[in-house]
Amino acid sequence: AWLGKNENKKAAQEAFRKRAQINSLACRGQYVQSGKNDAAATQSLFTASYTY
Q1: Would you kindly state where each structural domain of the chain is located, as residue ranges?
Q2: 16 Rama class: left (phi>0) / alpha (psi -120 to 50) / beta
Q3: 49: Cα separation from own chain's centroid
Q4: Which of 16, 28, 41, 50 gives a 20 to 30 Å CA spacing to 6?
């Protein structure tokens, strides 16, 4: 959302706020998905055979 551009700052902050709110609900088992998702929210973070 931000891409390092000042004109995107407000949109990036709003996207961060939404994700923080959703994460807060999810960690308490209270999140119910509704509405549309942005592209980043639908991408999987899974990496096959990943080890630390």
Answers
A1: 1-30
A2: alpha
A3: 24
A4: 41
Query: Dihedral through CA 28, CA 23, CA 33, CA 44, nearest 10?
Result: -120
Name, in order, each residue with C-beta under 8 angstroms of 29's C-beta and a sequence gap of 6 or more: none
For 5, phi then psi, to 5°, come to -110, 130
Residue 14, Ramachandran bin (φ over 0: left; ψ between -120 and 50: alpha; else beta): alpha
Distance (Å, whole) CA 33 – CA 41: 11
Non-local (6+) Cβ contacts of 25 within 8 A are 31
pTM over 0.70: no
The span from the CA of 27 to the CA of 50, in Å, is 24
